[in-house]
Amino acid sequence: MLEKIGPELRQYLVANNREELPFNRIERGWIYASAKKENNYEGFGTDRDIYAHQHIFINNAMIPYKIEEDHPNTLDKSFIPCAKVMGAYNKRKRPYRPASIINVSAMSFGSLSAKAIESLNKGVKKANAYHNTGEGGLSPYHSYGGDVVFHFGTGYFGVRNDDGSFSMEKLVKLVQANPFIRAVEIKLSQGAKPGKGGVLPGSKITKEIANIRGVKVGKDVLSPPNHSAFSNVTEMVDFIEAIADATGLPVGIKAAIGKLEQWEELANIMKTTNKGPDFITVDGGEGGTGAAPPSFADHVSLPWVYGFSDLYKLFKNKDLTERIVFIGSGKLGFPAKAAMAFAMGADCINVAREAMMSIGCIQAQICHTNRCPSGVATQSKWLQNGIDPTLKSERLAQYFKTFRKELTEITHSAGYEHPCQFKMRDIEINVDDHNLSKELARTYMYNKTPVPFTSMKDLKECVYLGGDYNKPNP
Ligand SMILES: Cc1cc2nc3c(=O)[nH]c(=O)nc-3n(C[C@H](O)[C@H](O)[C@H](O)COP(=O)(O)O)c2cc1C
């Protein structure tokens, strides 16, 4: 019995503020308070050991960036759109500038409850962010009007033929019928279980899930480790181009990083053919999942900083970074960590578990059992009763707004207008002594390509800006 209730006893009574993983009490508390617009400050100074190994320092400017009266951030302190436009370089028909640099990462209806998905979708609409569908297809709960990135993996849920193969016809129909889909993401892998297929047990396949995913009620469905639509890097690029041509949307890939040979091949193909993904989402090995074997979650693929730095360097060495929007995910939903990610070359952040926490997840870590006590990661109607999407969507939106406001303030403190201006030398990582603490550039051995940023005003006037900013008033 003690073994069973041990985690709860430790979480609430024994563990200190900075001890727990994946997210410690201070991190969770910051998300909860930000989402509720409560006081998220701490008094008396930091309780962190700032001399600890791997601690991040952001170098502030002597005189911070000053915002003038007519600056977009004077009116809206949380306005930070992406500084790059997805699909601009490849001249897609419908390029997209995400109107928020923080967005909801891939999580399916099926792994999350209907009420949770509805709260996230209504929340991104309020925060002018986007909502990534996850692998489980586009559900009615993704369709409350927030920008959507349609994501699919090897199961091609929602866009598959009866034999499980990919259907371009279904994807085109889906995109045409749902103009709020602004981009398509092909999942190659995710940090928690790269290269691992999965089985969706028949017992979990209700009529509703079967309809959305295009599978049969009550019958086990296999998500194989490999895609059947392509089998090598050249074919993958052709597949990306075919989707972009047929839908007009920017197309990206999501992956956790390990070996680099095939990425090198991709970069070479992009260089020679002038084709390729419009965005790349790099997921860290510390990333979350609805369910994964610990051997995978703990050991397969690199943590975000190592994976991202390896990948960015590779694309930078081939002069390709400017045409790709880099998205980072893996516990990056905290302003200082995001500043570091931007300094390393990320253009946007995706958050999954942080978004779950903002709508009530208590990190019970039992997403795989269907018994999530907060109603976020379960299909039990009874457990979902605790979620009021009107309230929870406010919470998600408020978390995003607070996050963006704090990131903007950190950016100004470093003397910049937009976080895309962070450079590797602006952030240091502690390796135990200031003489040894290294700027990111020396730690990861590259400098990021400057993002061609003009001003926040220009971003605000951009015709490709997502969210509701440039939509005519109804
Ligand atoms: C409940 C849950 C479901 C997820 N489902 C997917 C998925 O369908 N496809 C995918 O690529 N990643 C999926 N992920 C991974 C997240 O999108 C994200 O990449 C990862 O959790 C890192 O972000 P985080 O640290 O902010 O949680 C899922 C994560 C969680 C927690």
UniProtKB/TrEMBL annotation:
Residues 99-416 form the Glutamate synthase domain. Pfam families: Glu_synthase (PF01645). InterPro entries: Aldolase_TIM (IPR013785), GltB (IPR024188), Glu_synthdom (IPR002932). It comes from the Bacteria. Belongs to the glutamate synthase family. This is FMN-binding glutamate synthase family protein. It comes from Snuella lapsa.
